[in-house]
């Protein structure tokens, strides 16, 4: 009996330390573009990939080919002129997560954290501050989402020329370089 309890305890502790994977089907990332100062449109990426290790290393990759603006020509132009998809296949986000706090959550509990997030877009990286909610949905499922949009200043990622090219091709007066981003990431073990 003692042996069985020891084996069960080892199995449970192993499960608690197993890496988490991004469930792409139940995760989302959307952003808003504003053109001509009055027209706001919501877009999204079709896929997120990534993991959260038992050491708290969060890595999320957003394949740029999965951009969806609901206008195929605009998708192509953004990939060609702004995201430079031939040279940069993905946008990446990394963070160091306090796994002790996450592990302490009971099913149904929520944790609110201010989390620095390192974002790499093209060859430029920025550290952004995000306010996150972490919800333990089950022993093998977490939901992490931002409580307020992350405001990306695309000029800090040196996307000015690409934005200007899009503006010119679309015949617009202006495309705002400030882009609000919202995400919801479902992690499973």
From TrEMBL:
It holds the Pfam family YceI. Residues 1-18 form the signal peptide. SUPFAM superfamilies: YceI-like. Gene3D superfamilies: Lipid/polyisoprenoid-binding, YceI-like. InterPro entries: Lipid/polyisoprenoid-bd_YceI, TTHA0802/YceI-like_sf, UCP029811. Residues 19-188 form the Lipid/polyisoprenoid-binding YceI-like domain. Keywords: Signal. This is YceI family protein. It comes from Rheinheimera marina.
């Amino acid at each position: 009996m003692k042996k069985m309890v020891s084996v069960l305890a080892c199995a449970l502790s192993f499960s608690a330390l197993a890496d988490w994977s991004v469930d792409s089907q139940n995760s989302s990332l959307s952003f808003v573009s504003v053109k001509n100062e009055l027209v706001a449109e919501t877009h999204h990426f079709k896929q997120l990939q990534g993991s959260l290790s038992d050491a708290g290393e969060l890595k999320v990759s957003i394949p740029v080919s999965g951009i969806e603006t609901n206008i195929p020509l605009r998708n192509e132009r953004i990939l060609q002129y702004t995201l430079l998809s031939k040279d940069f296949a993905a946008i990446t986000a990394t963070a160091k997560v306090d796994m002790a706090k996450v592990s302490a959550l009971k099913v149904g509990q929520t944790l609110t954290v201010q989390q620095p997030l390192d974002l790499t877009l093209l060859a430029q990286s920025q550290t952004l501050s995000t306010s996150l909610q972490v919800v333990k949905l089950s022993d093998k499922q977490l939901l992490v989402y931002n409580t307020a949009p992350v405001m990306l200043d695309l000029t800090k990622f040196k996307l000015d020329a690409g934005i200007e090219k899009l503006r010119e091709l679309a015949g617009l007066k202006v495309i705002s370089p400030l882009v609000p981003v919202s995400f919801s990431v479902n992690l499973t073990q």
